Amino acid sequence: MIPLGTKVSIYGHILGEPFQDPKELAEGDVGGEVQLIQSRLKSAGYFQVIINGKFRSNTTAAVKNFQRDHHLMQNGVVSIKVYEELGLLE
To answer: How many CA atoms lie within 13 A of 52 on its CB side?
Structure first.
């Protein structure tokens, strides 16, 4: 455990290895990465239902709306560009 107030530096992105891009996510995927995407989409006003880590049609619709508003291809797939726009990659 790290004491409260300790400066922590995280290298790479929060989704895996520093030099490996996170995997694309699409309908049917489940897990922590999906939950993180749902959380970011909810914070941005695109995802209105309970965050459950299951990439279903409601997540696809939210991703498509996010992609539309950010001038990305509207295919419902969480690509590197979507990760970047959500602030998960630099």
So the answer is: 10
Q: What is the C-alpha R_g of the chain?
A: 14
Other C-beta atoms lying within 10 Å of the C-beta of residue 56? 14
**54 secondary structure, DSSP code:** B
- CATH code for the domain of 36: 1.10.101.10
Residue numbers of the domain that contains 79:
32-85
Q: What confidence tens digit (pLDDT) does each residue in 19-65 have?
A: 667 889 999 999 989 999 999 999 999 999 999 999 999 999 999 99
Give the dihedral of Cα atoms 58, 67, 78, 86; nearest 10 deg: -100
